[in-house]
Amino acid sequence: MVDRGVSALSLPDDWPAHPDKVLALNRMGSFDWDLDTGLFHMDAQAHEVFDVRPDEYDDHPETLAIRVPRAEAYRLDGLVAQALKDGSENYGAYFRIRRRDGTLRWTHTQGYIRRDETGRPRRIIGIVRDATQELSESQDRREEAAEDAARREQTNVVQLTTAALAHARTVQDVIDVLKDTHGLTHLGATSLVVGLVEAGRIRLVAEGPAGSFVPGTDVTRIDEPYPMSEVVRTLTPRFIESPQEFAERYPLLWPHLTGLDITAAAYLPLIVQARPIGAMGLLYSDRRGFSPEERNVLLALGSSIAQSMQRAMFYEQEKDLATGLQQAMLPRTIPSVRGADVAVRYRSGSTAGSLGRDIGGDWYDLIPLPGGRVGAVIGDVQGHDTHAAAVMGQLRIVLRAYAAEGHTPATVMARASVFLHELDTDRFATCLYAEADLATGVVQVVRAGHIDPLVRDADGSCRRVSVPGGLPLGLSAEFGRLEYPVGTLELDPGHTLLLCTDGLVEQPGADLDDGMRTLTALITSGPDDVRDLADCLISVAEERGGDDDVALLLLRRRGLEAQRSGGRLQQHVAPGDPEALTEARHMIRAAVRAWGAKERADEIELVADEMITNALMHTEGSAIVTLRVLGGSERRLRVEVEDSSSALPRRREAGESGVSGRGLLLVDLLTDVWGVEARGGGKCVWCEFMVPEGDWAEGD
Q: For the chain, which has fewer Cβ within 10 Å, the N-terminal or C-terminal residue?
């Protein structure tokens, strides 16, 4: 307590005969210390400060030893000696004196050093005054400032913790915030325990330090003699201020905590809308007792934690509901497909502030169809809520039903669009439906506003397949545009068809084409196995995050053995639809090649084309083309063209210049056998081709 910033004193030359009146008025005593003689003269006020009578003091500083404790005297002597040595003009210091009643009083002195022409110190003139009240007030101010700082720090911890809790979404998030080094540890707590009320019991969700778990307290009844049970039962906090109090109030719990050096604890009920949802315990190892301010801070913090915990519990409940609904809407299992390896994956997007409604309208489906065919569906209903999931579930079911009824891919998509339009909803959906014949590798693709499929070749290279598309489902019916063009692609053995929703492709700030190129590169460098590749792709989506769902379906053609019997393909051809006729021809050509009948490929394709054309020209409905492989003593390939007319075909003479009338002549000439069968309200024109054994073998 040294003060060297004292201004020079101004005392009259005849001091101490006439002491300064200003000093006397301020209850300050003065002194004049002659350094040559060593005499230390004091005025009457200075005598009073040192509590010595004039007859007790002989002007020698040593006499004051009866009032100045030795330690204080050593400190003062050192201070004055240093000031004299280093050329200082003044000094100042606080020191204690012991009055005659034995009490210690703080005293303050200031001295001004006078030197001669050579700089030698000759005289010190100064003052002394009682400083006990001054230091007491200063100490009070310091203590008050320290308390204010502590309150501000505690309030700041509450504010920081509350701000951090605002971003907590799950119960574990809340616990992590509380255990964080910037959380409750700033309040001095050694450890934290939290329990939540469930069905009349308290389930522990956060334990204290390692080794502090009490057997049997994982789940406890509210009526048990534990502090968390008590605060939940009474809705009243419990502040335990000593180990003795802890041992007396909770004898069942205390023996398990004796090794943790716990000296105090605060247990707070977590109350929301006058209802307890749980309790929190703070354990301390370096304090005894809680001030009123500390209790108020903890109560405020407990209220904030209760609100955050309730919000987190609601979030988890809604998330469980959303997850269950999403799982119920998606296929429970994916059927095994002969001749193909299939992998599906789904990732739910995470929307900030959604309070658990992390559910969307993305879906996938795999539909087994007759004749070794399979339908693969990928789609996305607009929106990211339970309503989108409900619409998705209905749309998935009707699309599966339309496909199973045997409709062409374009018809399946058109009917699904009409269905969605007629639902009482304002949602639309994008969708892609691919119908694959695994015997031939022919895939017919219909796209309703969805992103294009990708195909990975056997060598690992990947390409985007551009498919003509129509409007999204629901919008096409609204605008009266139900035409969905059909694209065709071929999957060779080892090729993989990849269908996905835009959550796997779109990235913030990136163009869709850039996203497709990135995905293509990722698939190219990915593993060969479709399941491993699906895991790889979904892991990338997880790392990237984002608010959108991701649905993914991969179908890899294994390459079937040549089908000697039982093979079947079917194609619907609508009148006035040249694309459908082209697709039928494509299917026939691919099937003949896949089934090893290449020696008669031209004949089969020509006859089938004539039969289809005849059905379209002479009937008002569509035609259904079916190719079959028949077994027996000889291998045969059968072509059937079914229409809705009961009128039987008849031969006509084309004439020399006629351009028609030769269809049945070609059928009769090129086939081994042909005929007509009645089929309900229509008929079926069929023909068969004998295929040599060698051709079948080459096709294996």
A: C
Distances (CA, A) of 470 to 375, 451, 483, 630: 19, 11, 7, 38
Q: What are phi and psi of 207, to 5 degrees?
A: -100, 170
CA–CA gap between residue 380 and residue 534 (Å, rounded): 19
Distance CA 157, CA 188 (A): 11
Closest CA to 481 of 418, 530, 539: 418
Cα–Cα–Cα angle for 243, 245, 246, rounded to 5 degrees = 60
Q: How far apart are CA 427 and CA 137, in angstroms?
A: 74
Q: Which residues pair with 213 in a beta bridge?
A: none
The residue behind tokens 């059928």 is: 667
Taking residue 119's Cβ as centre, other Cβ atoms within 10 Å add up to 7
560 close to 605: Cβ distance less than 8 angstroms: no
Determine the pLDDT at residue 379: 92
User: What CA–CA distance (Å, rounded) separates 302 from 298?
Assistant: 6
Q: Phi/psi class of residue 692: alpha, beta or left (left: φ > 0; alpha: ψ in -120 to 50)?
A: beta
659-672 core/surface letters (b: 16 or more CB in 10 A; e: else): eeeebbeebeebbe
Give residue for tokens 């509380």: 178
- Rounded to whole angstroms, the Cα distance separating 156 from 187 reads 10
Spatial distance between the Cα atoms of 488 and 410, rounded to a whole number of angstroms: 12
Q: Is the dihedral of CA 223, 225, 230, 232 positive or negative?
A: negative
What φ, ψ does residue 686 adopt, rounded to 5°? -130, 160
Q: Is the pTM of this model over 0.70?
A: no
**Nearest to residue 441, comparing CAs of 339, 543, 345?**
339
**One-letter-per-residue 3-state SS of 342-355:** EEEEEECCCCCCCC
Encode burial over 277-305: b for 16+ CB neighbours within 10 A, e otherwise: bbbbbbbbeeeeebeeebeebbeebbbbb
Cα–Cα dist 301/459, whole Å = 62
SS3 content of the chain, % helix, strand, coil (to 5): 40, 25, 35
d(C-alpha 84, C-alpha 531), whole Å: 90
Which residue has better confidence, 682 or 623? 623
Q: What is the pLDDT of residues 518-571, one digit of tens each?
A: 999 999 999 999 999 999 999 988 888 766 788 999 999 986 544 444 567 777
| 3-state SS, residue 502 | helix
Residues 351 and 377: beta-carbon distance below 8 Å: no
Element (H, E) at 698: helix 693-699
For 316-334, what is each residue's pLDDT tens digit?
A: 777 777 666 666 667 777 8
Residue 346 CA to its chain's centroid (Å): 16
- Cα separations (Å) of 267 from 222, 235, 238, 587, 657? 14, 11, 5, 76, 105
| Alpha carbon distance 663, 669 (integer Å) | 10
- Rounded to the nearest 10°, the torsion over CA 18, 23, 26, 30 is -100
Is residue 592 a contact partner of residue 605, using CB atoms and an 8 Å limit? yes
The answer to whether the beta carbons of residues 46 and 128 sit under 8 Å apart is: yes
- Tokens in use for 51? 């509590």
Distance CA 471, CA 219 (A): 56
pLDDT mean over 175-187? 65
121 - beta bridge partners?
Answer: 115
Q: Please state, in angstroms and as integers, the Cα–Cα distance from residue 418 to each residue in 191, 331, 449, 522, 618, following that order.
A: 61, 23, 15, 37, 30
Q: What token pair was written down for 538? A: 């979904």
DSSP-assigned states of every residue in 602-667: HHHHHHHHHHHHHHHHH-SS-EEEEEEEE-SSS-EEEEEEEES--PPP------SS-SSS-HHHHH
pLDDT attached to residue 563: 42
Identity at 657, one-letter amino acid code: S
Cα three-residue angle 494-495-497, rounded to 5 degrees: 140
pLDDT at residue 352 in the model? 40
